[in-house]
C-alpha cells in the first residue's frame, strides 16, 4: 500500500466516496497496522484525522458539502473553529480548548463553539467541565436532543447513572425517531438494570428495518449486549445464534468479520463482570465467524508454552523490558533452579559417602568382618539410586546453564497489552488480563518497619504471587496492570484490539499451544538422560569398588585392633580372598606358635600323674598300638546322673588326658573309651576311672551329693599310678557348682594338679581355636 495522501480524507484511507462505515473501519485498521504511531507518527495522525471525520455522520456530511471552512460563520469564529480542529487533530486538546474558550468570550451566542469545547473536554476525559459546557448549551437550546444525548454520556462517565438515564430519556423524547437517541437510552437503561424497557425500545427500532439488513443486525447485536448485561445468558445465546444464521445467510464475505468485531463489546462487558465462561463462549462464536482475527478467540485463565515457541521479535521485546531499569518487568533469579539442583546433588553425595565410609564401630569381630550394607544387593540398589540421582541433578544443572547462556532472557515477569507474562529461557506462562478477577496486596513489616509487599493475583483458577521490596513501586505496578487491563477491555469493546501495538508479537493464538507431554519432553532429552545414566553407571562401579576395598581394609584393621584368633578367623571366613588374607593367616600362625610354646613351658612333666600317663603312652606306642583305652564307671543308686551325663564326663576326661599325652610328645597316641565292669577295662594298658555317688536328696539324705573318685594308670598289666579323691556338692539346683557338674568340677581340679596341668588350663583354651578344620589350616 502506498503512503497515505494528506490532500483528501477518502484518498488517505484509500476508499471510495460511496464506502459504508464497515469499509471505512476496515481500511482504517489495515492502515494503522502498516503505519503504527511509534514508527510513522505523521502518517498515523493523518489516518486518524481522516477516520474521525468520515466515521462521524455529521462531520462527514459537512465534509462532503465542502463546508470544512465553516464559511457560514464570521471570520473570527471560523478561524477559531479551524484552529481548534487543527489543534485537536494534532492531539493538543489544551490549545483547542484555549482557542474555543477565547472565541466563546467574544461570541457567546455561537453554540457550535460550546459544542466543540464540550467535545474537547470529553476527549480529555474532563467530564465535569464537559458537563458544565453542555448545561450552558442546553440552557440556550433546551430542545436540541443532541445536547441532551451528550449530557447523558458525560453523566454516565461520571457514574451518575440515574441522571444519565433521565438525560437520555429527554433526548429520546425530543427525537423519538432518531436511532442514535434510542441507542443512548437503551445503554442507559441497561446500566440501570431496566432490561425489559431497553428490549422494548430495541424491538420498536427493529420493526423499522429488515432483520437481514446491516441495520437490523446492528440492532440484534445491541439486543445481545442487553441480554448479557441482564444476566439472561440463555436468551442472549439464542439471539447470538439467530444473528450468526443471518450473517451466514447473507452471503457477504465481509459481514461475519464486522459482526464478530461488534460482538467484542458484550464479551468485554462479561469479562469486566468476571463472567469469564460466558465471555469465552461468545468469543468462540467470534472465532468461528472471523478465524483470521488475532484477538477474537477464547482466553483461558493460564497458558503454558515453551519459550522457543515465541517469535524472535517477541523474545527481543522481552529482553528489552528485562534490561530496562524503569519498566514494568520484574526480574527473577535465574539461578534458583540450578542452585537447588546442585544442593540436592551435594546432599545425595553426602548420604552416599556416609553409607560407604561412616559405618559405626562393630560390636564384635564377626560384625566387623561381615559384608557391609553397600556390599549387599539392597545396598547396591540404594547406592545406584543415590548416584543416579546425583548424575541426573548435575546433568540438569549443566542443561539449565547451557540454555540460559544461549537465551536472550533470563527470567522476568512483565505486563503485555493482553497478558501478565512470566518467562524464563525454557518456559513461558501467559495470564490473560481479561481473566483477572482478584488482586490483593499486603504490606509486611517487622517491629513497625516496612520490609516487603506481597501481591496476589487471581486469574480464574490460576494464582500468581509476587513480592516487592518497594511499597511505592508495588502500588505503581498494580495500577499499571489494572490500567492495561482496562484499556484492553475498552479496545475489545470498540473493535480496535487488533491494532494495539505489541499484540502481534505475542498474539492470542499462542494460548492454543499446549506444552509437550512428559513423554515427549523425556524423548527430547534422551541424550542427556542417556549420558546421565552412563555417568551414574561409571560412578556407581567406581564407588562400589572403592567401598569394597575400604570395607576390606576396615575389617582387617578391626582384626588387628582386637588381635585375637576369633577376629582373624572371622576376617578369613568372610574374605578368604581379601587383600589382607595372607597377613591374617600369618598372624594366626604366629599366635599358635606362641601359645604352643607357652603351653609346653607351663607343663609340669614331673607331676606323678603326668609321668605315669607318659609311661603308659610310651608302652602303648612301643607295643605298636595307637590307642589308650579309657574305662569310666559311675555307680549311682539314686538316679542323680542325668541322661548323657557320663558321656560329658568322659569327653572332658579324654581331652585332659589326651593333652597330657600330646605334651609328652606322644601325638600319635589317642584316648578311646572302652566299656568295663566296675571301672575295670580288662586291658594290659589302660586308664580306669571309677566314681561312686552317695547321699543327696534323692536318697533321703542330707541334700549333699558325695562322689568318691579313683583313677588307675595300668601299663603292661602293672599299676603305675593310683589316684583317689572325694568331692562334695549340693544336690539341689542346676548350676555348674551343684549336682554331678559340681562334684566333677572339683575332681577335675584335683586331676589337673596330679597331671601337672593346672598351670596350662588357660593356655590350652587359647590353642583350641587353632585346632580342627579352618581356612588357615591346623
TrEMBL record:
Gene Ontology MF terms in the entry: unfolded protein binding
Transmembrane portions of the chain: 339-357, 377-398, 529-551
Keyword Lipid metabolism: no
GO cellular component: cytoplasm
Keyword vocabulary terms for this entry: Chaperone, Membrane, Transmembrane, Transmembrane helix
SMART domains the record matches: DnaJ
GO-annotated biological processes: protein refolding
Coiled-coil positions: none
Segments forming domain J: 8-67
Keyword Chaperone among UniProt keywords: yes
Protein name, UniProt field: J domain-containing protein
Record lineage: Bacteria, Pseudomonadati, Myxococcota, Polyangia, Polyangiales
Amino acid at each position: 500500500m502506498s503512503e497515505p495522501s494528506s490532500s483528501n480524507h477518502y484518498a488517505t484511507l484509500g476508499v471510495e466516496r460511496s464506502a459504508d462505515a464497515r469499509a471505512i473501519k476496515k481500511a482504517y485498521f489495515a492502515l494503522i497496522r502498516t503505519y503504527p504511531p511509534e514508527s510513522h507518527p505523521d502518517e498515523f495522525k493523518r489516518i486518524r484525522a481522516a477516520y474521525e471525520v468520515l466515521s462521524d455522520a455529521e462531520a462527514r456530511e459537512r465534509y462532503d458539502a465542502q463546508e470544512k471552512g465553516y464559511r457560514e460563520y464570521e471570520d473570527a469564529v471560523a478561524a477559531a473553529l479551524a484552529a481548534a480542529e487543527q489543534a485537536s487533530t494534532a492531539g493538543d486538546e489544551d490549545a483547542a480548548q484555549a482557542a474555543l474558550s477565547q472565541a466563546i468570550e467574544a461570541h457567546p451566542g455561537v453554540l457550535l463553539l460550546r459544542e466543540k469545547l464540550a467535545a474537547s473536554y470529553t476527549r480529555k476525559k474532563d467530564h465535569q467541565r464537559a458537563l458544565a459546557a453542555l448545561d450552558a448549551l442546553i440552557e440556550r437550546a433546551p430542545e436540541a436532543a443532541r445536547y441532551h444525548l451528550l449530557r447523558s454520556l458525560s453523566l454516565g462517565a461520571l457514574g451518575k447513572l440515574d441522571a444519565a438515564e433521565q438525560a437520555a430519556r429527554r433526548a429520546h423524547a425530543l427525537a423519538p425517531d432518531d436511532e442514535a437517541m434510542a441507542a443512548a437510552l437503551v445503554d442507559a437503561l441497561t446500566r440501570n438494570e431496566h432490561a425489559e424497557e431497553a428490549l422494548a425500545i430495541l424491538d420498536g427500532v427493529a420493526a423499522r428495518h429488515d432483520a437481514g439488513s446491516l441495520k437490523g443486525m446492528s440492532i440484534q447485536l445491541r439486543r445481545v449486549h442487553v441480554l448479557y448485561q441482564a444476566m439472561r445468558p440463555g436468551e442472549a445465546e439464542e439471539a447470538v445464534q439467530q444473528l450468526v444464521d443471518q450473517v451466514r445467510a447473507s452471503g457477504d464475505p465481509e459481514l461475519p468479520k464486522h459482526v464478530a468485531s461488534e460482538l467484542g463489546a458484550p464479551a468485554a462487558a462479561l469479562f469486566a463482570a468476571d463472567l469469564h465462561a460466558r465471555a469465552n463462549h461468545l468469543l468462540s462464536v467470534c472465532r468461528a465467524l472471523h478465524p483470521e482475527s488475532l484477538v477474537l478467540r477464547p482466553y483461558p485463565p493460564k497458558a503454558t508454552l515453551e519459550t522457543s515457541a515465541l517469535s524472535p521479535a517477541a523474545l527481543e521485546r522481552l529482553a528489552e523490558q528485562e534490561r530496562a531499569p524503569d519498566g514494568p518487568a520484574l526480574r527473577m533469579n535465574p539461578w534458583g533452579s540450578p542452585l537447588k539442583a546442585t544442593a540436592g546433588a551435594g546432599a545425595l553425595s553426602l548420604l552416599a559417602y556416609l553409607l560407604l565410609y561412616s559405618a559405626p564401630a562393630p560390636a564384635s569381630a564377626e560384625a566387623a568382618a561381615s559384608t557391609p550394607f553397600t556390599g549387599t544387593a539392597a545396598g547396591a540398589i540404594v547406592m545406584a539410586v543415590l548416584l543416579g540421582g546425583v548424575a541426573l541433578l548435575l546433568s540438569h544443572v549443566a542443561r539449565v546453564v547451557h540454555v540460559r547462556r544461549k537465551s536472550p532472557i533470563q527470567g522476568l515477569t512483565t505486563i503485555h497489552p493482553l497478558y501478565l507474562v512470566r518467562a524464563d529461557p525454557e518456559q513461558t506462562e501467559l495470564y490473560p488480563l481479561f481473566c483477572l478477577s482478584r488482586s490483593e496486596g499486603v504490606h509486611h513489616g517487622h517491629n513497625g518497619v516496612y520490609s516487603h509487599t506481597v501481591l496476589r493475583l487471581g486469574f480464574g483458577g490460576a494464582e500468581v504471587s509476587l513480592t516487592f521490596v518497594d511499597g511505592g513501586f508495588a502500588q505503581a505496578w498494580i495500577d499499571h496492570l489494572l490500567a492495561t487491563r482496562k484499556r484492553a477491555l475498552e479496545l475489545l469493546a470498540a473493535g480496535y484490539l487488533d491494532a494495539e501495538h505489541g499484540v502481534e508479537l505475542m498474539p492470542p493464538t499462542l494460548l492454543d499451544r499446549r506444552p509437550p507431554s512428559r513423554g515427549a519432553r523425556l524423548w527430547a532429552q534422551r541424550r542427556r538422560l542417556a549420558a546421565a545414566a552412563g555417568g551414574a553407571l561409571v560412578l556407581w562401579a567406581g564407588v562400589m569398588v572403592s567401598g569394597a576395598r575400604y570395607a576390606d581394609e576396615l575389617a582387617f584393621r578391626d582384626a588387628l585392633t582386637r588381635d585375637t584368633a576369633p577376629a582373624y578367623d572371622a576376617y578369613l571366613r568372610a574374605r578368604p580372598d581379601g587383600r589382607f588374607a595372607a597377613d591374617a593367616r600369618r598372624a594366626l600362625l604366629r599366635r599358635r606358635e606362641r601359645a604352643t610354646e607357652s603351653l609346653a613351658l607351663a607343663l609340669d612333666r614331673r607331676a606323678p600323674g603326668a609321668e605315669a600317663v607318659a609311661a603308659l603312652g610310651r608302652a602303648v606306642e612301643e607295643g605298636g598300638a595307637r590307642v589308650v583305652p579309657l574305662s569310666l564307671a559311675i555307680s549311682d543308686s539314686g538316679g542323680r546322673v542325668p541322661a548323657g551325663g557320663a558321656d560329658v564326663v568322659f569327653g572332658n576326661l579324654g581331652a585332659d588326658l589326651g593333652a597330657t599325652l600330646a605334651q609328652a610328645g606322644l601325638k600319635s597316641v589317642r584316648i578311646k573309651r572302652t566299656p568295663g565292669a566296675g571301672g575295670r577295662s580288662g586291658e594290659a594298658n589302660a586308664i580306669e576311672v571309677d566314681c561312686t555317688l552317695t547321699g543327696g536328696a534323692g536318697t533321703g539324705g542330707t541334700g549333699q551329693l558325695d562322689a568318691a573318685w579313683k583313677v588307675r594308670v595300668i601299663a603292661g598289666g602293672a599299676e603305675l599310678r593310683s589316684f583317689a579323691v572325694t568331692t562334695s556338692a549340693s544336690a539341689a539346683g542346676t548350676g555348674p557348682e551343684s549336682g554331678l557338674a559340681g562334684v566333677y568340677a572339683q575332681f577335675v581340679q584335683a586331676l589337673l594338679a596330679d597331671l601337672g596341668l593346672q598351670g596350662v588350663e588357660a593356655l590350652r583354651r587359647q590353642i583350641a581355636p587353632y585346632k580342627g578344620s579352618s581356612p588357615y589350616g591346623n
